Structures are given as C-alpha cells and as structure tokens.
Amino acid sequence: MLSLVLLLTSCAYSSTPTTEIKFDYVPQGYVSPAEGYWLDVPTGRNLLHMIRTYRERAEYWEREHGALSEKFRAYIDKTDERLTGIESNIEAERKAWKNEIRKAKLPGVGLFAGAGYGSAGQVQAVVGVGLVWRLW
Predict the structure, then answer these.
(1) What would the mean pLDDT of 19-34 be, rounded to a whole number?
(2) Which of 18, 32, 86, 111 is the least crowded, having the fewest Cβ atoms under 10 Å away?
(3) Are 86 and 51 in contact (CB under 8 A)?
(4) Looking at the DSSP assignment, which residues form a beta bridge with residue 119?
(5) Residue 125: exposed, middle, or buried by beta-carbon count in 10 A (0-12, 13-18, 19+)?
(6) What is the helix (H) or strand (E) element at residue 4, kind and residue range?
(7) Is-contact 63 36, C-beta < 8 A?
C-alpha cells in the first residue's frame, strides 16, 4: 500500500507539477457505508492516468521479457542440438579409431620377401606366404 501511495504521488507530481492531490478521509456512515478515502475529480483522473501508464509499462516489459525469454530458449535449444551433434561425432570417431586399433593388432595372412640365411651358410632370396602380426 505504501509503495502504491509513493508511486501515485511520484507519478502524479512528475507529470503535472502544479496538480494538487487530495485524499479526504470519510468515516463510516458519513456519505459512504464504509470508511475510506475519497478523491476529487482531477485527483481521480490523475490517479487513473497513472494506473493506466503503470499497467502499459508493466505489459510492455512483460512482452519484452517474454520475447527475450523465447530468443534465449531458442538459443539454448540450438546450442544443445549442436553439442549433441558434436558429442555423437566424437563418439563415432572414437569407435572407429578403437576398431582400427583392434584390427591392426589382429594377426593376418601376408606375403613376404627378403633375404634368408640357409643352413649351408649361404644367403638366399626368400619369398613366401604366412601369418603376420604386429609385434609392437
């Protein structure tokens, strides 16, 4: 209530510095069935203008906040999609790399050629087919 009164006085006085705001206290049974505060017409108009202005500003900032929240949510979703894509690419690359390492360690059949030392003490050319594997 206090903040409303402060807001009322600050808005009313800031827009029209020569306007006087009057709140008249009316006891119960005087001209009203309940006690309260009465305003004259100019004060009522200023108060209504202030409330409308305050509501318009509040609605404006709510709309702007909603638009900014939507943009932020879209950015978060887009970033999440990109990060998910990057993670899946890294995982696929890691699986392929591990598969290549596994394949490289398996023995295989291969051709080989080279020089060989015979039992009679001579060097001979050797060609053959055999099992090959990676030692290190």
Answers:
(1) 70
(2) 18
(3) no
(4) none
(5) exposed
(6) helix 2-15
(7) no
Condensed to tens digits (0 to 9), the pLDDT of residues 76-105 reads 999 999 999 999 999 999 999 999 888 888
Q: SS3 for 118?
A: coil
AA identity, residue 69? S
The predicted-structure confidence for 39-75, as pLDDT tens digits, reads as follows 777 888 888 899 999 999 999 999 999 999 999 999 9
Q: Where are the domains of the chain?
A: 2-76
Rounded Cα distance between 57 and 49, Å, is: 12
In this structure, what token pair is assigned to residue 60?
């404006």
Cβ atoms of residues 21 and 8 within 8 Å:
yes
Strand pairing class (123-132; 108-117): antiparallel
Sign of the torsion formed by the C-alpha atoms of 88, 94, 96 and 99: negative
